[in-house]
């Protein structure tokens, strides 16, 4: 029974991750604006995902434990490019690409670098959520931020929480991400409701 539930959590998480950023991408494309979507949040999230993926590859974890990360990273890169395009900052795309490519290489120069980066990964990912929250609080407007994307992020954190309950560091990461994803979703919905009543 538990094994079946774990399999269900794993496959449903993978399925959600395969499309997790599509609602956000569709919202930005439809509006031709990324208003409300924090570029800093996307950059930090992308950093956290890249560190996590690099760590998994470096230590030879089975592909099924990190298969969703390349898909999410690709979606985040597309989102970043759309944000840069609609904000008129496409020249920064090359700069970010060089930084991320260099970071990908530097992470595995020494074992202690990748280990330290992985230990900081939860803080990096949490910071991405807090940066998005700060953006929402400052503007008091959810703009083109997709509540569905953030809800799906909360779901994946909850399902991974269930699937990885025995690994303390990963457990703390997913609890933190669950709380912050729910918080960002609630803030988006709060400002969306407030805007409709104005």
Automatic annotation (TrEMBL):
Coiled coil: none annotated. Keywords: Membrane, Transmembrane, Transmembrane helix. One of its GO terms (cellular component) is membrane. It comes from Syrrhaptes paradoxus. It is found in: Membrane. The chain crosses the membrane at residues 12-30, 42-61, 67-86, 93-110, 170-191. This is PQLC3 protein. It comes from the Eukaryota. It is a multi-pass membrane protein.
């Amino acid at each position: 029974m538990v094994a079946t539930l774990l399999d269900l959590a794993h496959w449903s998480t993978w399925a959600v991750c395969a499309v997790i950023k599509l609602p956000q991408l569709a919202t930005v494309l439809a509006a031709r604006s990324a208003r409300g979507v924090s570029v800093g949040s996307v950059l930090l999230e992308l950093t956290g995902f890249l560190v996590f993926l690099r760590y998994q590859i470096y230590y030879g974890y089975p592909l099924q434990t990190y298969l969703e990360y390349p898909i999410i990273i690709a979606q985040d890169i597309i989102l970043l490019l759309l944000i840069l395009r609609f904000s008129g900052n496409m020249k920064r795309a090359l700069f970010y690409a060089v930084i991320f490519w260099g970071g990908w290489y530097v992470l595995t120069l020494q074992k202690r670098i990748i280990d330290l980066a992985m230990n900081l990964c939860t803080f990096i990912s949490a910071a991405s959520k807090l940066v998005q929250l700060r953006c929402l609080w400052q503007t008091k407007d959810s703009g083109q931020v997709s509540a569905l994307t953030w809800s799906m992020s909360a779901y994946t954190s909850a399902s991974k929480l269930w699937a990885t309950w025995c690994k303390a560091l990963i457990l703390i990461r997913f609890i933190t991400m669950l709380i912050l994803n729910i918080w960002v979703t609630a803030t988006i919905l709060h400002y969306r409701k407030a805007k409709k009543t104005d």
